[in-house]
């Protein structure tokens, strides 16, 4: 082996050790705590798009999801309970065309959920916003309507990912 190959190999090993030592993970690589390997997921409706997205994410990461939590003899929950509350999309006016028609909106997607862990009396209430800008064009109403639906779908995906990230950092949730 030449000296340059040895140096290159040592640099590669040193870089990979330093990345793993600092806790670096690839984006989207979620490892939930052991106490969240089985979870009860509740929502406004099982057909709610955010509910389906979160359930899909949990199942993708091999988390057992149930919608019924058996109660033990003392009426305490036996599984962590994640309850998705009503999500809300708000549009705020950002700018107007010279004609007075809306040119640009700020889309604010608010998501709220609660988390109750077995053996705990306090329910954790978590809420966050995802914000996007959306340009409107009165001459392309159908296209802009479809674009708005795609943006909302992407915002739901981001919300589900954010919930997963927050669950991985369970001890840091407020």
Distance from N terminus to C terminus (CA atoms, Å) equals 54 Å
- Could you state the order of secondary-structure elements as H and E? HEHEEEEEH
Helix-strand makeup class: alpha/beta
Please work out how many helical segments DSSP would assign: 3
Strand percentage lies at: 25-35%
Structure description:
The protein has a single domain (28-172), classed as 2-Layer Sandwich (Double Stranded RNA Binding Domain). It contains 3 helices and 6 strands, in the order αβαβββββα. It has helices at residues 3-21, 49-60, 141-168; strands at residues 38-42, 64-66, 81-84, 88-96, 102-116, 124-135. Strand 1 (38-42), helix 2 and strand 2 form a beta-alpha-beta unit. Helix 2 (49-60) packs across helix 3 (141-168). It is flat and about 70 Å long. The N and C termini lie far apart (54 Å).
Write the layout of secondary structure elements.
Layout: H1 3-21, E1 38-42, H2 49-60, E2 64-66, E3 81-84, E4 88-96, E5 102-116, E6 124-135, H3 141-168
Parallel strand pairs: 1-2, 1-3
Antiparallel strand pairs: 3-5, 4-5, 5-6
In short, what is this structure?
The chain has 174 residues and is of the alpha/beta class.
Which key features would you list for this structure?
34% helix; alpha/beta; 3 helices; 6 strands; Double Stranded RNA Binding Domain; 174 residues; flat; six-stranded mixed sheet
